[in-house]
Design a protein that fits this description.
two-stranded antiparallel ribbon; about 240 residues; about 35% helix; 7 helices; globular; seven-stranded mixed β-sheet; Rossmann fold
Length: about 240
């Protein structure tokens, strides 16, 4: 089957319009909530380290999906524009968050209108498997960041190739090349998970206990323990 992103995500979110639809579809809602909780904690650290307070700032949430990060930024006082390729995402979130603006668009196809204090693209770019569309998406995301603003995105930043039909990881060096060319300077990397959001192989029975994995991951992250390639948040700032 050929991967068609718009059809893929429209169908997936139509079946599960919650964190399972944008996360791990075969695992529990509690498991996915734990994964997203760790993402939000890593994002909090990243923004704190880059002295960015969302209150009063403009934020573009690309790949807004089921709205986790849209709500996260709204709760912190940002003015949010959400963008997604799936009509069900835009239609549902418009109803759920009338104070925000939502746009049906594919960042791999067209430049973004306007510039923002922060552009958020969490777990988005590795779902663009075509190289030309990926390069266009990186360029369009970078172009939407205002002077001094931040681009926040996530990937494993390791050349792991195509892990699934809808998933292709790319190395940090490739991101650096394209973002530097677009006038952005890379900041730090922030690990989001250790045991959660990972294939545990023979230990996968632990996925049934997200209440155990969540504090364990927090402890391991605090100690700087990482088990091979895993997702991270990257922050880049527009410097020119």
């Amino acid at each position: 089957m050929t991967y068609q992103p718009r059809d893929f995500w429209q169908g997936r979110l139509a079946r599960q319009f919650d964190l399972r639809g944008s996360g791990e579809t075969t695992l529990s809602l509690a498991y996915n909530r734990a994964c997203y909780q760790l993402r939000s904690e890593a994002l909090t650290r990243a923004l704190r380290d880059h002295d960015f307070d969302p209150r009063g700032k403009t934020v573009l949430d690309v790949g807004c999906g089921t709205g986790f990060f849209t709500a996260w930024y709204l709760e912190r006082g940002a003015g949010v524009t959400g963008m997604d390729i799936a009509p069900i995402s835009i239609e549902t979130l418009r109803s759920r968050h009338p104070q925000a603006r939502f746009v049906l668009a594919d960042v791999g196809e067209h430049p973004v209108e306007g510039r923002f204090s922060l552009v958020n693209a969490m777990d988005v770019l590795y779902h663009i498997t075509d190289d030309q569309r990926w390069e266009a998406a990186v360029s369009h995301l970078a172009g939407a960041v205002e002077q001094g603003g931040l681009l926040v995105l996530s990937d494993a930043f390791s050349d792991m190739g195509r892990l699934a039909e809808h998933n292709r990881m790319r190395p940090l060096a490739l991101y650096r090349t394209h973002l530097n060319a677009a006038g952005l300077q890379l900041g730090g990397l922030y690990h989001t998970h250790v045991l959660l959001n990972r294939d545990l192989g023979p230990l996968r029975f632990l996925n049934r206990a997200p209440g155990l994995l969540l504090p364990l991951d927090r402890a391991l992250l605090g100690l700087g323990v990482h088990l091979g390639p895993s997702n991270k948040i990257l922050v880049a700032r527009r410097v020119r």
